[in-house]
Amino acid sequence: MDNNDPSVTYGCETWYLKGTIKHKLMVFERKVLRTIFGSTKERDGTWRIKTNVELNKLIRHKNIINYIKTQRLSWFCHLHRMSEERMVRKVYKWKLMLTRPLGRPKNRWEDDVRNDMKKMKIKNWTSCIQDRSNWKLYVEKGKTSTIEVVASKEEGEEKEEEEGGGGG
Question: CA 154, CA 103: separation in Å to the nearest integer?
């Protein structure tokens, strides 16, 4: 959905997307798209719902997850171009002076954005950020990055997995 409902994506620039949240957002989006585009009439006269593959073709892979990722890339760029005196930049750079809990550290927003940049094969992002027009091309490229669609043979359903898997 290129024109995402602001009530769904409000503040998405600062979200960390776990796998469960991605799945719930995609389910919601497909439910809305199936309502908008309706059913498909087969040659024999029967009706069926559109598959995920058909929906992806209709929206040209401009789904809600890609929209959120591009919003985060835009905000990341804006944040790094800010002057050091801005309060938002100070909060972003601020380091907590406490000991971390034991175990694996939690994934952070910045880690998620950097992983997105790695998947998009953006090298030397610090210099790319300074050139707004060049960075805008990367953001536009992110709007249509494809998600692997894997068909489950046992159930006959389609499942979507992002390249690299994981997330949670």
Answer: 37
- For residue 157, the tally of other CB atoms under 10 A from its CB is 10
Give the domain ranges of the chain: 6-94+108-161
Residue 93 has pLDDT above 80, yes or no: yes
Give mean pLDDT, residues 110-123.
Answer: 88
Cα 77 to its chain centre, rounded Å, is: 16
Nearest to 70 by CA among 131, 130, 15: 15
Residues of the chain by 3-state class (helix, strand, coil), percent to 5: 50, 5, 40
Q: Which two tokens stand for residue 54?
A: 């058909």
41-70: pLDDT as tens digits: 999 999 999 999 999 899 888 889 989 999
Counting Cα atoms < 13 Å in the Cβ hemisphere of 165 gives 1
Query: What are 151's strand-pairing partners?
Result: 158
